[in-house]
Amino acid sequence: MTSVALRLAVAPPTESCDSGLAAPTWDFDALTTYGPGASVDDAVPAETTNATTRPGQLPQAYRDADEADLYRRIEVAKETLGDRVVVLGHYYQRDEIVAHADFVGDSFQLANAALTRPDAEAIVFCGVHFMAETADILAREDQQVILPNLAAGCSMADMADEDSVEEAWLDLAEAYGFDPEGSDDPADYPGGKLPVVPVTYMNSSAALKAFCGRHGGIVCTSSNARTVLEWAFERGERVLFFPDQHLGRNTAKAMGVPLEQMPMWNPRKPLGGNDEATLQAATVILWHGFCSVHRRFTTAQIDKARAEYPGVQVVVHPECPMPVVDAADAAGSTELIRQFVADAEPGSVIAIGTEVNMVNRLAAQHPDKTIFCLDPVICPCSTMYRIHPGYLAWVLEGLVAGETHNRIEVDDDVARHARTALERMLAAAPKPLTGSAQGAPAATAATGSAR
Ligand code: SF4
């Protein structure tokens, strides 16, 4: 059964956002777009630090294999490789991929899960490019991290490329009068605070994590964004937050930062589209980036759910626009959403604002509760969708044959600085626990709001 068919079996029949989802699998595989689904209309950058623009490279034999054959071949290859390989599956992956995952979780949970398998020579990351980079940064030097399809990028991560962020940094240095390559020690600045602390969301390239490492900045996840911002405000006058404006705005607003102190930085405009006075008053400068999956959710959908299901509880991801987060009963990371559903009383009705594969899986796992996606239109993450079982079979059988396909390797210098920013995050927030409930290690302490 294909993932679309499975979703239709679990959720009420509904339309999809992209006819490509119903097209034969390989019709989209050679395209240089993000693929069918929520990001299909996002502009692919001419030059990108990840590999989004590369079309799939899957040998024909794997394209010709049917689903049952691929399932069997994946299982045989995993059995043959044993502890030499660990397969990681992001929550937003298709069910046909999650079925083979040793660990299921969000990006940071999965990178940490890999650390619990030191015997694994290869880490096969069924997610998107920045996740595989993060796993490579955290993995042992001799471990190979593999992204089954190099076309699985992330349109949000691509919205903040290294050159644009470097240019913005120069503009901000001029506006606030600091040396762009100066000290990253707050003690070296008036008032003991850095003029700007760069904060990047985990959903960004390794190059941007390294940028933060070099400039006194830090990485955050959707679980710990508030803790990280508190850390940043202790060390700096203001924050440059990229690439997701919504996570930055929702988190800072919950901390009491006024909206007028959160200007947007549009990298295509001079000074990001701001004047000097706006920048002087800024507390959080928000990069003009967004997730096309979470941007689909609206307050009208919440109103409709409340009208149709009195007593419904609405939980959404903080990558959703601010009015949606404000109208929901709870907002938090993917892990918080999973826990919210698990903790709900039998008979509960829960409307969820996050990726549809995850929502439908939660619905299947909790048949005693009514669980549905706020968006009535099937619209998965386009880039996650590009990991097909054919690719997983190909990379695993390659390992059996002694060949490595699609290895992701982060440059040593980039990795060193990126690790600095990641380590600051770990020092600022409770360390994630490890374990393997349905494969998923326990989450970092969720700081999402629940109202
Ligand atoms: S759901 Fe959004 S942020 Fe996550 S990989 Fe897809 S496009 Fe990127």
UniProtKB/TrEMBL annotation:
Region feature Disordered, mapped onto this chain: 432-451
Predominant location: cytoplasm
Enzyme Commission designation: 2.5.1.72
Keyword field contains Iron-sulfur: yes
InterPro entries per the UniProt record, alphabetical: NadA, NadA_sf, Quinolinate_synth_A_type3
Superkingdom as given in the UniProt entry: Bacteria
Catalytic activity: iminosuccinate + dihydroxyacetone phosphate = quinolinate + phosphate + 2 H2O + H(+)
Binding site for [4Fe-4S] cluster: 154, 291, 381
Family matches, as HAMAP family: NadA_type3 (MF_00569)
PANTHER family registered for this protein in UniProt: QUINOLINATE SYNTHASE, CHLOROPLASTIC, QUINOLINATE SYNTHETASE A
Family, per entry: Belongs to the quinolinate synthase family. Type 3 subfamily.
Name of this protein: Quinolinate synthase
Organism: Serinibacter salmoneus
